From TrEMBL:
Coiled coil: none annotated. S-adenosyl-L-methionine binds at C263, A264, A265, P266, G267, G268, K269, D287, D314, D332. GO terms for biological process: methylation. PROSITE patterns: SAM_MT_RSMB_NOP. Belongs to the class I-like SAM-binding methyltransferase superfamily. RsmB/NOP family. This is 16S rRNA (cytosine(967)-C(5))-methyltransferase. It comes from the Bacteria. Specifically methylates the cytosine at position 967 (m5C967) of 16S rRNA. GO terms for molecular function: methyltransferase activity. It is found in: Cytoplasm.
Length: 432
């Protein structure tokens, strides 16, 4: 198996079929499980890096190729992109090898006639890679940031308006930085059990750092897939961002409560909430489809939780049977995901202005149904994994204005400023 061809085919499929890159990556690495760890790491790095830096790479290709990137044949376009990524960002691969491999691959895929073109463009870029000229930083800040950090310009302009230039640049840097995996250790473990687990993880060659925000949050580095973390299959830890943990940590959950999570898949917050109940009380975790609730079930099984059930249910539809039943409603709603583009690279290219306008309408529609499930005196937590004010602060203001709730507080976590994903949490208490 030619691993560069594997990468090329993945890039082609992601572009043509709009397949989610992390799902495709998982299935390809599973299928070619016999490859060495080094080969797998190369595939992952080049594919993810090429996607992540696409805007910058296309800008460079457009400066060096007579044929604009948009007009190239998809195979040639993606072959050039992955080669430029290696030339610019991977010191370990000699530039000449990158050019030769690209030419060989073009030949194999019946593009012999373009061998000269590919070789010429790549060798020129390799030769001049330290002198590439970019848009003028002072004259057009948004365009410069867009190319340098590979982020669509309309998003940058929006953030510059919402957060200022400095914070926008800090966020863009953070979105490209390699972040460790964060895990939530099962809170019901005692100190000795926790120490024993951490020791097992360290002995597996994984580097551990305690996260500063929560006693049960840890950052892990140098791991070979989530499933191989000692304790994972036994449900002793769950991969989850700290922002998500904070959402449940500060929800005021008490033993004996009834917690309703209206958009719960894959179940990170709902299972965390179930642990907080310490075996007394109950969580109902809902999501739109059976396919989604199956993901929650998997999580429940793995963690061995008894006091949580799932149900497929459309959160936009009011369910009378739950009227004023919940002590806490978790409304972790569908959103643009702009706070997690560092982890899910497809989001930044797939999001549109129209979607940004429509999402607050969906969020309001769901909230206008689910607030009724909160008991008088109970709590509603509204959260998203975005940094888009129209989906966050504006929706929270609208909610407090229209329904019988006291606004407790809200928190916007920003990448680069906090050691978390970009995330928004607003807390409301229903009037008695
Ligand atoms: C941000 S995710 C939830 C993450 C989850 N709370 C966790 O912590 O693991 C939003 C979820 O909303 C679900 N969703 C979207 N529209 C919905 C609807 N109308 N009713 C119920 N769930 C919906 C999606 O399937 C998705 O799983």
């Amino acid at each position: 198996m030619n691993i560069r061809e594997l990468i090329l085919d993945m890039l082609l499929e992601i572009e043509k079929e709009k397949t989610y890159s992390h799902i495709l990556m998982r299935s390809v690495l599973d299928k070619y499980d016999y490859l060495t760890a080094q080969e797998k790491a190369f595939i992952k790095r080049v594919t993810e890096g090429t996607l992540e830096r696409r805007i910058q790479i296309d800008y460079i290709l457009d400066s060096y190729s007579k044929v604009p990137v948009k007009k190239m044949k998809p195979l040639i376009r993606n072959l050039l992109r992955m080669s430029v990524y290696q030339i610019l960002f991977m010191d370990g691969v000699p530039d000449s090898a990158v050019c030769n491999e690209a030419v060989k691959l073009a030949n194999k895929r019946k593009f012999q006639s373009l061998k000269g073109f590919i070789n010429g463009v790549l060798r020129n870029i390799a030769r001049q890679k330290t002198e590439i000229s970019y848009p003028d930083k002072e004259k057009n800040k948004a365009e410069y940031l867009s190319v340098w950090y590979s982020m669509p310009e309309f998003l940058i302009s929006m953030w510059m308006e919402d957060y200022g230039i400095e914070q926008t640049e800090r966020m863009l840097q953070a979105m490209l930085a390699v972040r460790p995996v964060t895990v939530r250790l099962k809170e019901t473990m005692n100190e000795a059990e926790k120490e024993a687990l951490l020791k097992r993880i360290e002995e597996a060659g994984i580097r551990i750092r305690k996260h500063p925000y929560l006693s049960y949050a840890y950052e892990l580095e140098h791991l070979d897939g989530v499933r191989s973390i000692p304790g994972f299959e036994e449900g002793l830890l769950t991969v989850q961002d700290v922002s998500s943990m904070l959402c449940v940590e500060n929800a005021g959950i008490k033993e004996g409560d009834f917690i309703l999570d209206v958009c719960a898949a894959p179940g990170g917050k709902a299972t965390h909430a179930a642990l907080k109940l310490k075996g007394r009380g109950r969580v109902l975790a809902r999501d739109l489809t059976e396919e989604k609730t199956a993901l929650i079930e998997e999580n429940i099984q793995r963690q061995g939780l008894a006091n949580i059930t799932t149900e497929a249910y459309d959160a936009t539809v009011y369910d009378e049977t739950l009227n004023e039943k919940a002590d806490v409603v978790l409304a972790d709603l569908p959103c643009s995901g702009l706070g997690i583009v560092g982890k899910k690279r497809d989001i930044k290219y797939n999001i549109t202005k129209e979607a940004l306008e429509e999402l607050p309408l969906l969020q309001k529609k769901i909230l206008s149904a689910v607030w009724q499930y909160v008991k008088p005196g109970g709590v509603l937590i509204y959260s998203t994994c975005t940094i888009h004010k129209e989906e966050n602060e504006r929706v929270a203001e609208w909610f407090a204005h229209n329904y019988p709730f006291e606004f407790i507080d809200s928190r916007q976590l920003l990448p680069g400023l906090e050691e978390t994903d970009g995330f928004f949490i607003a807390r409301f208490k229903r009037h008695v």
